[in-house]
Amino acid sequence: MKKLLAFIAVVALLFSCNSGDRGELVGTKGKKWHPEKPYGMTLIPGGSFIMGKADDDFVAVNDAPTKTVTVRSFYMDETEITNAEYRQFVEWVRDSTVRLRLAILADEVGATPGDEGGIGDFAFVDQEDEDMTAYEQYMYDNYYGLGDDFYEGRKINRDIDLIWDTSEYPDEYYTEVMDSMYIPYEEAYNGQRTLDVNKLKFQYTYMDIQAAARATGKSRKDFIIKEELEIYPDTTVWIKDFNYSYNEPMHNDYFWHEAYGDYPVVGVNWKQAKAFCAWRTLYKNAYQKERKRQHVNQFRLPGEAEWEYAARGGLESATFPWGGPYAKNDRGCFMANFKPLRGDYAADQALYTVEADAYEPNDYNLYNMAGNVSEWVASSYDANAYEYTSTMNPNVNDKDNMRKVVRGGSWKDVAYFLQVSTRDFEYADSARSYIGFRTVQDYMGTDVVLNDKLGDAR
Q: Where along the sequence do coiled-coil regions lie (predicted)?
């Protein structure tokens, strides 16, 4: 009898394990993947191109010798990141900071949801045990409060609207938290008391995969890096970048006023640009998780080769994104926003920046890859980089080298810096009134490539 039961158990196991596959090796089946073009991005088909100076290097920098390289397919923002888009990031951090402070104070005073509509409504979601899933309860019991930050990992309540009208603050605890977010009264003037932007800090973690892949005998946690930084743009760059120049209106209004919402954000350093990429990934994947969809891969800054390949728009050995060799078209109109003549910034119809989708796009439908604002890329600057980088997806990113490459030239630069092959750099912790950025995302798969030299994608 025991042998019969054992036989039946084995047979049941066999049939349950290969049910539906007839015993064949068919592979595991996950959710069907449908590539989705990210909003505001365009697909750059992978391919090879001649990277470097196509014309004579008349300034004799000699940092961009010609070299044939190949890059994989990727999506790229059609425009530079705008003030409105970066403000979305800033406001998310602002709201998250306020919600966290409200939840912490609610925890300290023992306030819970339903306490007459006060600060308790903003308590941590796990404040009430009966509202937690088994997983949330386990994480709360075993992990929360063990790190450097006692509240790390706690889930804040995003379902209830924040109250910004001072006449509608629900209680003194809420008032205390909101008061802490603004500059002190003694620093306000003309009746304007604004948010203390130094309180707007974004924290994220990432893994240094390059270092981890080359190391042996170390733990995974040794390569997990935590970053925390202030993310509000430095609006004082409009003053500090130009001595003996009246640019106060740009300092006062450029970032926050809706009149400049579609203009490229500036005053953002390289580290802040990377933080924006991390937030954009987090924000999109939160949406994906809520709808039980697969996560998307990360948004990031483009590598130097990727940026140049995209800027060329499929044109081989061209000087500018539109070809060249001139910065004017056949009707005598300037093709980009830059400094065309000595001191005559407005000769191209713009004194400072212009809308991010101004002028004609290149053949990849990318706007302002030359002029308007220079753009941060992921690569570190080394004058000899082209001599030793790989010919496949070349990129140099030395974490100890604070000189980061900027490309494309800006509204205050002469035409030389607009050339797709011209290299320049700025320090990672520096912000300028003429440097912005755009992001990229890797294409999942390898079936989109440049078809010969015709620019078609198959």
A: none
Inter-helix orientation angle 83-109/172-180, to 10°: 140
**DSSP category for residue 328:** B
pLDDT band at 11 (very low <50, low <70, confident <90, very high): very low
CB neighbourhood size of 243 (10 A): 6
Q: Within 10 A of 260 (CB to CB), how many other CB atoms are there?
A: 19
Burial 85-95 (b: 16+ CB within 10 A, else e): bbbebbebbbe
341 and 250, same domain (yes or no): no
**Looking at the structure, do residues 257 and 283 belong to the same domain, yes or no?**
no
Strands in 122-263 per DSSP E: 201-207, 224-230
Say how many CA atoms lie within 13 Å of 391 toward its Cβ.
7
CA separation for the pair 458, 449 (Å, rounded): 7
Strands 374-380 and 435-436: parallel
Residues 412 and 422 in one domain: yes
| Among 15, 72, 56, 113, residue whose Cα is nearest residue 446 | 72
Q: Which domain holds residue 238?
A: 84-264
Examine the domain organization and report whether 316 and 251 are in the same domain: no
**C-beta of residue 228 within 8 angstroms of C-beta of residue 199:** no
364-62-384-392 Cα dihedral, nearest 10 degrees: 30
pLDDT at 457: 41
Quick one: which H or E segment has residue 272? helix 270-290
CATH number of the domain where residue 356 is located: 3.90.1580.10
The reply to whether the predicted model has a pTM over 0.85 is yes
